[in-house]
Design goal:
The protein is α/β, with parallel strands linked by helices and 262 residues long. The chain is 27% helix and 24% strand. The protein has a nine-stranded mixed sheet with strand order 9-8-7-10-6-1-4-5-11, with helices on both faces.
Length: 262
């Protein structure tokens, strides 16, 4: 069994975010983590490795520093890491990103399952996983809560509002994972040492199969960012000290009535 896990290095929002003049994220200037939903997908793949001896390949698209997230995946137990990086890929929206990743995956023969996270915390679109499946012409099952292998098929418990679906699909198939799918394992000391010395495969534009130049990077992105900013800081507000509870109530009610809240 061959399993591919698409992971993304995303900004650690606790450390703040920075933007380029064109409105895209300045990823090179921010602290980063592995996207939480992707880490759940990685854990699901590693459990298949534990159960069935699956070969797990982690793949990411990003700046050269995104190699860090691949080494983290390998320290957790992934067998291989592939970094897709090239200047022409910068500024990609979901369409250009999914096109790029699908073009890279076409280099990997005979895969059975592709895992992606439901969505990334830096975009929250939940579009890239299903788009990859569409590019590759394979079925997609989204919002996975539980996964079982049944011969050449998978059976997935899929979250759906206040209930769930049980869906069965033949492989190859793409599954998008919720962070609630599992509790990802920690890196092991031995895994960390091995990952530091492991070889990371690097692919660029020339390695993408069946991909047009016009579908890549910022120029190939139909989504355009009109404006982006960090959190808007609020002022201190109005501070009022009154003498009695009745005066306080009258003041608050006056404000609510004046602003047509009540």
């Amino acid at each position: 069994m061959k399993v591919i896990v698409c992971i993304k290095q995303v900004p650690d929002t606790k450390g703040g975010v920075k933007f380029n003049p064109d409105g895209t994220l300045d990823r090179g200037a921010m602290l980063t983590i592995m996207n939480p939903d992707d880490k759940a997908g990685l854990e699901a793949a590693l459990r298949l490795k534990d159960q069935y001896g699956a070969e797990v390949t982690a793949i990411t698209m990003g700046l050269p520093k995104a190699e860090e997230v691949l080494r983290e995946a390998m320290a957790m137990g992934a067998d291989k890491g592939i970094l897709v990086t090239d200047r022409v890929l910068g500024g990609a929206d979901t369409w250009a990103t999914s096109t790029t990743i699908a073009g890279a995956i076409r280099n990997i023969p005979d895969y059975d399952i592709i895992f992606t996270g439901r969505q990334a915390i830096d975009g929250d679109t939940a579009q890239v996983g299903p788009q990859i499946a569409e590019h590759l012409g394979i079925p997609v099952i989204s919002y996975a809560e539980d996964i079982k292998v049944d011969g050449d098929s998978v059976v997935v418990k899929r979250q759906y509002e206040d209930r769930y679906h049980m869906i069965k699909a033949k492989t190859p198939v793409l599954i998008t994972a919720l962070s609630e799918l599992n509790d990802p394992r920690y890196m092991t000391p031995g895994g960390i040492f091995d990952a530091l010395d492991a070889e990371i495969t690097t692919w660029g534009r020339a390695d993408l199969i069946d991909v047009e130049d016009g579908d890549l990077g910022l120029m190939g992105s139909p989504t355009k960012i009109a404006k982006a900013s960090d959190k808007v800081r609020k002022g201190a507000g109005e501070k009022v000290v009154l003498d009695t509870p009745d005066e306080s109530v009258d003041y608050i009610m006056d404000k609510l009535l004046t602003n047509h809240i009540v």
